[in-house]
Each structure stands twice: as C-alpha cells, then as structure tokens.
Amino acid sequence: MKIYTKKGDLGETSLFGGQRLSKHHLRIESYGTVDELNAHVGVVRDSLEDQSLRDLLKRIQDTLFVLGGILASAPGKRPDYLLVKEAEIDLLEKTIDEMEETLPPLKSFILPGGHTVVSHCHVARCVCRRAERRVVGLATEEEVDPLVIKYLNRLSDFLFVLSRKIGQDLGVDEVEWKSR
Fold it and tell me: Residue 61 to residues 33, 69, 105: CA-CA distances in angstroms?
C-alpha cells in the first residue's frame, strides 16, 4: 500500500465513513491537534527513564489515538471499537492525586522551564488545551462525545502536575512567575 493517495491534493480529506471535508474544517483541525498532542506526549515519554510513567504515557497515547479516531469519524459512522471510557479519566484523576501528595502546594504561577523534559510537558499541556478548544468549538456545530472533551480537560491538568512531578524527581527548581 502506498502512503500517498493523491486524493487530498485539492485540499480535502476523507473521514471514516467516506464523507469528504476541507482540510481546514474544524473536525480536521480537532483530530489533527489531538494527533499533534500525541506526538508531544511521545517526546515526553521518550525522555523519561521511569518505566511506570513511560507505560502510563503509552496508555495515554493509545487513548489519544482513539480520540483522534472518534473525531475522524463522520457523524453516525464511528466504528464500535472507538470509544473513550470513563475509566481512562478516572486513571488520570487518580494519578494526579497521587502525584500531588508528594508535591509542595502551589504558591505562585509556574512558568515552563527548569529542564527540557519539564518544558516538553508544558508544550504538551498547551497543545492539549488547544485540542480541547478545537473540540469544544466542533461540539457547538456537531455532536461530539462529551467524554472526549472531559478527557482532554483532565489530561491538560495531568500534564501540568506531571511537569511538576518530573521537575521534583529531577531535583530542579520550579520557575516561579514574579510580578514586576
């Protein structure tokens, strides 16, 4: 199978189910941004030594791939195997709570930085927020599984806390924002 089909040369692409849309359509922007997020999560995963965190980030990538598939499906044409489960959101919340138990309370805003991996977590968090905004925008026009939005919202929180936890594990100070 060739990687190129030439079917998108005029600026359109196909959804699961066969519907064709312009590549600038909000649905395409939504799943494209989820794909971009998945790539950033992969960079974070590949930068870590901790196997349990690497495994968790791989699971998150698997879930993001499913979310992308959901968003890439024409309304009413989503395959049954593409669904996000509440258990994935519960796992994020449980992990956030566990990480926060070891972290000092926040006393100021935190700036991205301090270590490359910490910064990559923040980039992933920002892309996650953008993906969430795109999906919320799509939901104003078409039906979107509410768990997709909920998962992205919780994932951005997870990525923020993960950045703090990784910084703590690496022994680097958080970069606090200071008002001038």
Answer: 13, 12, 28
